[in-house]
Amino acid sequence: MAxxxxxxxxxxxxxxxxxxxxxxxxxxxxxxxxAHKGQTRQSGDPYVSHPIAVARILTxxxxxxxxxxxxxxxxxxxxxxxSIDNVAEAFGKPVAEMVEGLSKLDKLQFETQEDAQAENFRxxxxxxxxxxxxxxxxxxxxxxxxxxxxxxxxxxxxxxxRETMDIYAPIANRLGLNTIFQELxxxxxxxxxxxxxxxxxxxLKVARGNRREVVGKILDAIKLRLEENHIxxxxxxxxxxxxxxYKKMQSKHLAFSQVLDIYGFRVLVEDVPSCYLALGxxxxxxxxxxxxxxxxxxxxxxxGYQSLHTAVFGPFGTPIEVQIRTVEMNKIAxxxxxxxxxxxxxxxxxxxxxxxxxxxxxxxxxxLSQSGDSxxxxxxxxxxxxxxxxxVFSPKGKIFALPRGATAVDFAYNVHTDIGxxxxxxKVNFELVPLRTELKNGDRVEIITxxxxxxxxxxxxxxxxxxxxxxxxxSLKTMHLDESAKLGERLLGQALTSLGLKPQDVPEMCWERxxxxxxxxxxxxxxxxxxxxxxxxxxIARQLARVGEMTGQESNSSSGVVTILGNxxxxxxxxxxxxPIPGDPIIGVIxxxxxxxxxxxxxxxxxxxxxxxxxxxxxxxxxxxxxxxDVSIKLIVANQRGVLxxxxxxxxxxxxxxxxxxxxxxxxxxxxxxTLQVNNRLHLANVLRNLRRISEVVRITRVKSIPA
Length: 708
Ligand code: MN
Prior knowledge:
about 700 residues; alpha+beta; Hypothetical protein af1432; 4 domains; five-stranded mixed sheet; binds manganese (II) ion
């Protein structure tokens, strides 16, 4: 049995593949048969009959040799002791990559039936597969499993049929693989609703028998009318698939006798104008149903499908459905994305891009690459099938869709606010990784929480979802008070020192009097008020000195200057407009209720935005700062290949991190905007010196006026 199938496979590939490719398929056949030796399927057939059948589903699509070989080997890594390295050694890297992709997809199992889950799961499958050939092999694998589902236990067959209906059939449809799509749906229907399936298929058989004569007459009439109009065409009767009819009955609440278009016609013509001519001729022959005409030629479906659809009143008022399209469109209608292989012409060779992208992704790439030198940037920015989203699993198998760039912290807040607020560590695919780790498609993410943990303000630097951001902010507000109190205590201490007083020498009685005078409930609240800028440190210090009738000598040493360490948390913020770094002359602006915002002396927004409610405060950098600061620079570079890579390497060389980059093209030149992390001005100077050595770099400026 398997022997005969193997022979048939060789003959099929020999019809379209080169002799050396056919030889490779033969080697793969033997390799697979040896690997699966002794294994049987549930039906009792030798196991190798399955991979052979999968490969034979792909030959009518004229899939290339690599894909056929991968199909033959698709189960060896999962089910035998052959390793992926063995496959790579014997058949090369492209085949090994596909087999590995297939083994990975094999491990995914769809558990819940919620619609949103199904949609995410489909997208995740497609995104994980990367190479569209992997999806095609996976669909062929599933189709053969569905064809042989009788051998499997009822519970398992129900689960597989459900999963196929929810996940795999829609993928086949999305890729335009019409033949595979319809067979999958009919097989699922048969297993999920055996009674409805058998009743409907019997009714359909009878109806088709009864109408055979009428159908023949209509076919002849259409052919004749087209001939009279000198339109070269091929006219065919067309049977709709069973599940398609069933869906129509369900959605329109029809009885079977009311489903009129169980038989349709298809007219294939040579070119697009002939489509519309044929439509005119047909509407002259039979009256069209109002509102039933659809022009998918002018507006193709998302999967590339093109055709004219119309419904007309046939003889005796029988409604009939007609599809009109060119031969070319028909190929795409039947084989979809696979028509790339099936009908490749010498004019459009199949290159890696075709293989690794889907049609709609390609159109995306084309529209992007039309704007200047962006192709190079696309090489550096990772492009996926779904460029905006990643799909990850919780430990329980629930799928979460997150925006690209989302981190473990985003995931935690997406699961639940409490998980986010209490998270301390994360395991991705069973390995401990930093919380800021960017998640990838298919990752299994397990958040580790601790009961008394709190959000860290640093998280705000890398979360990308607005939910995580607002939850972190909300939770920090309460902690905010603590930090502000600490800062306030420091500020007051400095003010007292400048008055020649030591904070620890202030008697308890003075504090009590001060609280009474100011109306503050506690010393903590008073400190927090100072930290938040609600009260001025100098004013309170003088008040404190007065109530205790204490006098010290006004000391002149660094009087009143607040030093900035950079680790004060929310109480001291660095202005986003000018992004000060240690070494810059700075000034603090006390914002009531928000603490101190530090600007550079020359910040333009500072000069513009001065209002009566703000107090300025003399501040200086502390000598012992050990923290990285964000700084923005703008580079004008000549458009040349590899320039971005050179710039990035030079920045890394100077031991600075790139936090963010965006660009805009201006003719021959491109402006690159980087946000970098540096220790101080000296460090920044080193980075800039490195960058000036790159010949393509025309100009470098530090950006200090980013609109807030
Ligand atoms: Mn399989």
